[in-house]
Amino acid sequence: MEAAGTALVTGAAATTSAQAAARSRTKTIRIVGISCSPRKGKTTAASLQVCLEAAEKVDSRIDVELIELAGMKIDGTLAAGLPLEPGQKDDFGQLVPKLSDTKVAGIIVGTPVYFGNMTSLCKAFLDRCIAFRKKNLALSNKVAGVLAVGGVRNGGQEITIQSVLAALLCQEMIIVGDGRPTAHIGATVWNNGKTPVTEDEFGMATAKNLGRRVAEVALKIAVT
Ligand SMILES: Cc1cc2nc3c(=O)[nH]c(=O)nc-3n(C[C@H](O)[C@H](O)[C@H](O)COP(=O)(O)O)c2cc1C
Fold first, then answer.
1. What is the Å distance from ligand 1's center to 1 Cα?
2. What confidence tens digit (pLDDT) does each residue in 152-174 have?
3. H-assigned helices in the chain
4. Among 191, 197, 204, which residue has the most ligand 1 atoms within 8 Å of its CB, making it the best to mutate?
């Protein structure tokens, strides 16, 4: 009787682990790039696209999406709990379902360097993400990496990345840098103003390594 019972339990456990294995083979995850340049389709978006292509190549279960904040109205002051002014338009609400989607397992924030830091649009976006901390914890345990594009090779990309990472840590995100062989704190891209940013060999290497690293870690965490 006991033996039969044990067999039943073992059988049930086997089915469960087979189901779990099948689930993990088919489950898809999404990596989202968020471009925080006020200019649509420019160097930050192009660099993020390189990250996302590298992320997508990691595994067939990964899909990617680029979200550009350019043209969106995101008022950072509303993060403090102030009400919308009468007639005021604000687009942050459009981002909430996209980022709260349980498929999203990794996020790469990209920003131009503005005077050694992120753009005001990037800061407004990150401040408004306080909504996730208060309500659905949508960013918690998602993998995050950061990309910065500057007009100078060493124009402040790394300190800009650190500044963005600080906000992401406050969301309980699991932060990663660009993976090997570059393996530093994120993607550091140089827009020399003359040739397409995709010709910045070192910057593109960091972008690809960041995309790949975010995808690899997200896959490990989300598909278990
Ligand atoms: C207000 C402002 C400040 C900037 N400050 C810096 C800076 O401190 N360091 C730097 O390397 N580039 C700086 N830049 C250049 C931008 O980072 C660079 O042109 C970037 O590629 C713009 O990104 P986008 O093409 O996605 O808009 C600045 C640009 C602007 C408009």
1. 74
2. 999 999 999 999 999 999 999 99
3. 2-26, 43-57, 92-100, 120-128, 130-134, 157-169, 201-222
4. 191
